[in-house]
Amino acid sequence: MSRNKITIIGAGMVGSTAAYGLIAANITEEIVLIDLNRKLAESQVMDLQHSVPFWGYTDLKAGDYEDIKDSALVVITCGAAQKPGETRLDLLKKNSAIIKEIMPKIFKQNPEAVVLMVTNPVDILTNIAIKMFPKKKKQIFGSGTILDTARLRLLLGEKMSVDPKSVHAYIIGEHGDSELPLWSTAMVGNSAIDNFYKLSSKNKKNIFNKAKNAAYAIIEGKQATYYAIAAGIVQISKAILFDKKTVFTVSHPLNGEFGIKGVSLSLPAVIGRHGILRRVNMEISAEEKRLLQASASKLKMAEKDLK
Ligand code: NAD
User: Fold this and answer.
1) Which side of the chain, N or C, has fewer Cβ within a 10 Å radius?
2) pLDDT the model gives residue 88
3) Ligand 1 centre from 7 Cα, in Å?
């Protein structure tokens, strides 16, 4: 197996932008793009290839499922994208059929591949994929609330005049309308956020809502979001390819934690070469637990409705 080959299924906005980010980061020797629309994959590859002499050394090709054979990581970005006014859950029916079709093709080629689900609704699709391959539950996970968490950190950093990288705050739960911020554990440096800066409840609520609803605002103006999720895909890829053991709020199945079972949603977890290594234990407030359980119930209902 070539050590760091990545296959991206879906050569649309997210898939191609992730490929561009990976090329610029110089972390993989080969990227393969697979898309139902072969012509699109080929054109994306040509355009991306022309950036390689500027960035570094990554090889690219438009390929097929056989290319997964020696890929360490498969990133799933294929499917319908969120339309203006459409919630992520509206996408469920269309995209679950696609995921059910492609998951067996991936593991037929490479049972060891780590699979990063990005297609929405990411939590339910992650859960569906894991139910198909329960023994691979550490290898399959969703990008979850990594983007929501980045948006929250950015907005908090702006408000408190501090680098977002020094803001340790998480959004957990569904990647979508029922997600929640963890104020009880939020820190700036090593100080509890409330000791660092006096944010009123109203400020916190506004900042969280802005982070939560950012996708809707962006989609209204440009139909899709892709730069930031692509940057997140690059960081998760790095953690996998170089076994960095980095903490991300990724979507994965819960098994009784916080009274939740049978649902995949985002909680902070450690990511390394073989996928999820372990979850980060944490104390959350009673209200946060209630909101997390409500988020899980919403996801469970949506998946049930599918049947
Ligand atoms: P896009 O329409 O630009 O690209 C999707 C691509 O998938 C298309 O090129 C299409 O031809 C291809 N495709 C469809 N069915 C396929 C199949 N069965 N096999 C192979 N290819 C297939 O959409 P996009 O903007 O790139 O978004 C892709 C997905 O990523 C959407 O579901 C979107 O909601 C999601 N997304 C997730 C996050 C996140 O944080 N998780 C952020 C942004 C976008």
Assistant:
1) C
2) 61
3) 14
